[in-house]
Amino acid sequence: MANPNELADLASSTQINEVDIAIVGGAMAGATLALGLAELAKQQASIGADAPIKIALIEAHKPSNEHPGFDARSIAISHGSIFELKQLGLWQHLDPLATPISNIHVSDRGHFGMTELNSESLHLPYLGQVVELEAVGNKLFSLLEKSDIALYCPSRLHSVEARIDSQLLTLEDGQQISAKLVVAADGVNSKVRQAFKQPLEQVEFGQSAIIANIHTEQPHAGWAYERFTQTGPLALLPMADNKGDSRLSLVWALPPEEAERLLTAPKSEFIDKLQQAFGYRAGRFVDVGNRFSYPLTLSYMPRPIYHRTVFLGNAAQTLHPIAGQGFNLGLRDVVCLIEVLKQVLANPEGQAGKDVGSSELTHLFLERRKTDRQGTMNSIEFLVRGFSNDYWPLVVGRNLGLRLLSWFPPLKAPVARRAMGWNQGE
Ligand SMILES: Cc1cc2nc3c(=O)[nH]c(=O)nc-3n(C[C@H](O)[C@H](O)[C@H](O)COP(=O)(O)OP(=O)(O)OC[C@H]3O[C@@H](n4cnc5c(N)ncnc54)[C@H](O)[C@@H]3O)c2cc1C
């Protein structure tokens, strides 16, 4: 990286690229937004708009196994999110990489409560789909390269300067971009948030998650599992078969010391411990791939907007992975921003007369995201605290809740709606 004097020289010798929207961070949230906006620009061009929106995307990493946003994780994409990705024209590219979830089994270790959700009884082809982020990253990056987006990658944001009618971004290599609107999709340690000294609230759960791929003796047949244990929740998602090998993607929340120990424990000890915690509902676990750990904290910006700036995805809120909602919620941020932009651009004055970074736009985004964002964060905090606890009224309450759900299927509908990402605006 250049020192401040070198950077100033470099910046003054390069031309400033003027765009309408600069997105910082091109992982799940930033890349889907960029591609969604590129589609919007194409639509504008096809109806003869004078100047379709110009978009720049700045991402520090090219796809590789070092990429922090497209790593070894597998994530569950809800039914609702798949609908949104189809609307954005992206699902057709991700579908061949995905494994459908046909059934979800939820249980509470050592207690009687358990329930099941299944796609057949809800008359759906699937409840959600599982994708491996590394493969998704490669796909989205190749689409970005083919689009009209000004792609700065690998390139890192160095600083951002707020001006009255634009934001001036300087990259570590001295290039400069002037944008009417900055979208910060640069994750939990957002450089944009730090530059504008915007607060981040954090709730510690005192847990770390181990993630790994687990090889099973019996085929998974599209089952996903969520098991609440005394030390924290454990989730297993079905993955694509690898040369006839059945694999499940594990997220296991544990006290940090136990997570650290199990991360490097011999494979046989790890598998025994996991089998003990989970039981044999998915058959015998026969092998485990590379293990990684993540600290589990809920981090969120109380107010994810600033002058000509919108924060979304993990930059706005980073959730506990217990309910598999992080990207699903981030995607709803993306969709909302695109809707708000469409509304601004549809103004009869046209784009030239309308400012895509106006406070009207940022406030509209803030207002529209309030209920879903707060509701999702509250329900996840309730799940983590309520199910990682042996306080008896909570144990009785949650077990009765799970049992009632399985005895009275109509009660499942609202729960299923939430799990599948159809809870927006409720
Ligand atoms: C173990 C685990 C399991 C999960 N399971 C699920 C699940 O089942 N379902 C679900 O919906 N979600 C799940 N999530 C959450 C989901 O993975 C995240 O919400 C999502 O990937 C976040 O994407 P993002 O683009 O918002 O942020 P990030 O992935 O944090 O990306 C930020 C990007 O910004 C870039 N960047 C940072 N600083 C700069 C800079 N200065 N200049 C340029 N670029 C920069 C980084 O390189 C990175 O690519 C899970 C998370 C974990 C940890």
TrEMBL record:
InterPro entries, alphabetized: FAD-bd (IPR002938), FAD/NAD-bd_sf (IPR036188), Ubi_Hdrlase_CS (IPR018168), UbiH (IPR011295), UbiH/COQ6 (IPR010971), UbiH/COQ6_monooxygenase (IPR051205)
Pathway it works in: Cofactor biosynthesis; ubiquinone biosynthesis
Keywords: FAD, Flavoprotein, Monooxygenase, Oxidoreductase
Molecular-function GO term, any one: FAD binding
Residue ranges annotated for the FAD-binding domain, each copy included: 18-346
Cofactor(s) of this protein: FAD
Statement: the UniProt record of this protein carries the keyword Cell inner membrane: no
A Gene Ontology BP annotation from the UniProt entry: ubiquinone biosynthetic process
UniProt record similarity statement: Belongs to the UbiH/COQ6 family.
NCBIfam families in the record: PRK05732.1, Ubi-OHases, UbiH
Protein name: 2-polyprenyl-6-methoxyphenol 4-hydroxylase
Native species: Shewanella pealeana (strain ATCC 700345 / ANG-SQ1)
Phylogenetic classification of the source organism: Bacteria, Pseudomonadati, Pseudomonadota, Gammaproteobacteria, Alteromonadales
